[in-house]
Design a protein that fits this description.
This protein is of the alpha+beta class. The chain is built from 4 helices and 3 strands; from the N terminus they run βββαααα. Helices cover 48% and strands 21% of the residues. Strand 1 and strand 2 form a beta hairpin.
């Protein structure tokens, strides 16, 4: 699957397509996002960061198909590698 990288308002985004064909933009994280992630603690840190970067609520992420949710979490974790 090919993801597109776009730029809007001086921010970079990776656009991923979910199984239902919806496109979700993931903002490329900045230092402020790392600080946000570090302040969260616990195992939900990646989930919270993904919610923050995609502008999807945690509830919306929870209600995605597992395959789609995992794809978004993996894409966000790749930014941190």
């Amino acid at each position: 699957m090919k993801n597109n990288i776009i730029e809007e308002n001086n921010e970079k985004y990776t656009v991923v397509t979910l199984s239902d064909k919806r496109e979700i933009k993931i903002r490329h994280p900045k230092g402020r996002d790392v600080r946000f992630m570090m302040s969260g603690g616990g195992q939900n840190v990646l989930f919270r960061l993904t919610s923050n970067l995609t502008c999807l609520s945690e509830e919306e992420l929870e209600n995605l198909d597992a395959k789609d949710c995992t794809m978004l979490l993996k894409e966000v974790s790749n930014f941190l590698a």
